[in-house]
Amino acid sequence: MGKKGNKGRKSPSSREEFGDDVIDDAMSTTSVDTYGSALDYPETYNGGGGGAWDAAGGEEGVNSKAVDDFKDGVEQLTEKRASTREAGLRAVIKFMLHSPDLEPVLAMRETVLSALIGVARGKGTESQGAHALRALSVLCVCIGPEEEEAFRSLRRPLRSLITRSRHEGVRVGAVRTLALACFICSSDDDNTSETLDLLADVFSRTSDGLEVTDKVCAAALSGWGLLATTVSRSWVATRMTKQHLRVFRELLSSPDMDVRIEAGENLALLHESRIILGLVGGGEGGSADWSGGGGGGAAEAAQGGGEEEEEEDEEDQDDDDGAAEMEAMDLTVLWEEVVEEMKGFITDSSKKLSRETKKQQRRTFRQLFATIGENEPPEEVVSLQNGSLTVADWAHIKQLNALRSCLQSGFQTQMQSNELLREILGVSKWGGTGGEKPFYSKNSEVRKQQTTSRTRSRHSKQEAQDHIFLGEGAEER
């Protein structure tokens, strides 16, 4: 498979969710609502604010009480009483999310990792196991990349929970934690390939163990999309497209909206790679790869020497070329079906869906259709404490959503203190974007003009789409 190469996945040039009903609305002005309803976490497990370190000067340091509370929380994770373990989970998650100094976490990472795995695998409640898995994801973000040993410690128990846990919430959490742990902690291509294959088995519903529910399927689709951003664009546009396009197309018709959205985002990720490589419009994306395979057979025939062997190899090559043409036609038909399906979601007026659900579906699939049907990039704006960040490709959006939904209320603190997050999203230390692109405060005149211009452009495009899809009777958005 395509190589990751020096953690290139986390650079601005390369390119979950743990759903949360307390995500700060000021955090994002995105037009795509991708936060999962598959598993919501109560506010008590999100820290609820800065906590003990606020009185010690905020970001300038963490006072001893906060550190002591964290250490006590780690010890409580191994207690037999369920309420004590829950208190420990709250303390550990709160510290990791909101502390500007993660040295205490790094110093105890092996102890914390072992204790959290024990809680996740224990016989406690579904909520307790799910929160332990969420804490493991946050821990991975805190300890950072090149932690192969940590990933190896997580891999086996997480795979077991995915296929064998009797709690749906635990299985969902295990899927998301495995994907994020591989994304953050491992740079081994074999680990990525194995995890992608496992997630594909889950969302294809061919994995071992218990029946895959819609929530587990949606989580597997989300995790697969996250890890696909670490693979080379050429591999995504050719091999992965040929391998997974059909199943994504089928899942796009799922009765579950979370599954539809996650499948749609993965389709947008595949198509985006085809656009970037210039494969759209000149035959299907895998054409270069198919002709390369035929060329290999011709070269071997030339080395064989005999005229009879050459004739046989030419016949085999003709058969391969014919199969490739048929496959290209099949892929073209599938992409056309995807476009038509998304048009249907945009105009869906079914009374079976609530008004809010229809609104979310239309908003989401308008942006997905813009990429797949019109070859236009997405746009997501994230508010930071010192400005904002605009994300304009699906690969970065998948990464952003995975990190933001994992960290939830701690996202802003981590963006200020965690260098890894800034590197992944291409944000400078003080909140601006890296590189040559200028950064403006969201209240500046330049930013206001940019926002007005984008809004007018978006409205014009939407009016044109509404006229096409709905005619003169288009209902008001």
From TrEMBL:
Residues annotated as domain Interferon-related developmental regulator N-terminal: 59-273, 310-372
Residue ranges crossing the lipid bilayer per the database entry: none
Composition-biased stretches (Acidic residues): 306-320
Coiled coil: none
Record field: compositional bias (Basic residues): 1-12
Similarity field: Belongs to the IFRD family.
Region of interest (Disordered), ranges: 1-25, 286-320, 433-477
Biased composition (Gly residues): 286-298
Entry-linked Pfam families: IFRD
Protein name: Interferon-related developmental regulator N-terminal domain-containing protein
Species of the source: Ectocarpus siliculosus (Brown alga)
